[in-house]
Amino acid sequence: MATDVPDDSGTRPAWVATVARLLVLVAVLALLVEAHRQGLLGAFDSPTHARDFIRRGGALAQALYVLSFTLLGAFAVPGVVFLLAAALLWSPWETFGLGMLGALLGSLLGFVVARFVARSWFERHMPPKMHRFDHLLATHALLAVILVRLLFFLSPAGHWLLGLSKVSVGKYLLGTAIGILPGVILISVFGSRLVSWLGSQPAWVWLVLAVPFIIMVVAMRSGRRRNARAAEDESS
User: Per-residue DSSP letters for 38-53?
Assistant: First the structure.
């Protein structure tokens, strides 16, 4: 059985969440300022400079990669972007190790922020239909987390959805590790070849590859509109 995590957000003073948000913001800004002061941001003004800098950087560059994966992967950038970048820079074994570490840290950060720091904001902006996952996550937590990762991989929205659920942190991390393992292995082994192949293709190949994605986006938006109209009809 899943271990329920008590939701005491309603009993905590409002200033606690406010202070926590400010501390997170200050920490991120401080990291960016220090990176700029050290001249690290300028190393990424072009792909060539970035690749050369990272290859020369050794352990420091790898640490910065994991840090970037953690911060950006938690809130804005899908993890597959960082995994493909690592596949172009390092060996498959290094890509796998760094990728798994960054993916787990980033997913944990997004989970923690959604649950403990900005829970009320995410709850207000989460579509009501998403709450149907709460019961599944509470009764079959580990399996549910694995399925979410297999379906959505390292999408930041997956971190937030699971953070709003009652799944325990331990089962969240274990389910995430199991669910993303096949994808991380595939990208570590074949990612560089995939990127090289895509880069050598003519424009029409890109268009063909984009068509299914465009159809999927249009279908999802149409489905949302139909669901919204159905909900309005039921409420009226």
Answer: TT-GGGGSSHHHHHHH
pTM as predicted: 0.67
Q: How many CB atoms lie within 10 A of CB 197?
A: 11
Q: Rounded to whole angstroms, how far apart are CA atoms 101 and 177?
A: 10
Answer for the pair 110, 69: CB distance below 8 angstroms, yes or no: no
- In sequence order, what are the residues at sequence separation of 6 or more whose Cβ sits closer than 8 angstroms to the Cβ of residue 49? 42, 43
Angstrom distance (rounded) from CA 151 to CA 127: 19
Distance CA 79, CA 188 (A): 13
Q: How far is Cα 205 from Cα 208, in angstroms, rounded to an integer?
A: 5
Residue type, 211: V
Are 133 and 161 in contact by the 8 Å Cβ rule? The answer is: yes
Name the DSSP class of 9: T
Q: What CA–CA distance (Å, rounded) separates 25 from 145?
A: 28
Q: What is the DSSP letter of 8?
A: -
Residues 6+ apart with CB under 8 A from 146: 175, 178, 179
pLDDT digits (tens, 9 = 90+) for 129-148: 666 677 778 788 999 999 99
∠129-112-116 over CA atoms, to 5°? 80
What interhelical angle do 59-75 and 156-164 show, nearest 10?
60
Domain boundaries, the chain: 14-200, 202-236
Q: Read off the pLDDT of residues 28-68 as tens digits, 9 standing for 90 and up.
A: 677 767 766 766 556 555 555 666 767 777 888 899 899 99
- What pLDDT score does 120 carry? 80
